[in-house]
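Running this now, will post back.
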Amino acid sequence: MTIKETVMSPFAKVGGGIAAILAVLNPDVWFVALDALLASGPQLFSVASVGALTLPQVLPPQTATDWVVVGAGVLFLAYSLRTINQKFDERGL
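Update: finished.
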């Protein structure tokens, strides 16, 4: 039996579906995710503010100043996403 045949098997589909449902319904995962999101709240607010309020005003960038603002926004978003990822790693995700 090849891998393709195994994946297409009805038993594999049922088993995968049950595993996915049990993973989604696992309350520990939800509690850890919520805790990490709460700990990353300030970073998420900053990312949303930069993404929604600042960057659309200078996109597409036409002047050197616009390029500086876009570059700073991208660096800030990258830094914030790295911080959020570290918070998730600390909380066990």
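The chain has five helices and no strands. More later if anyone needs it.
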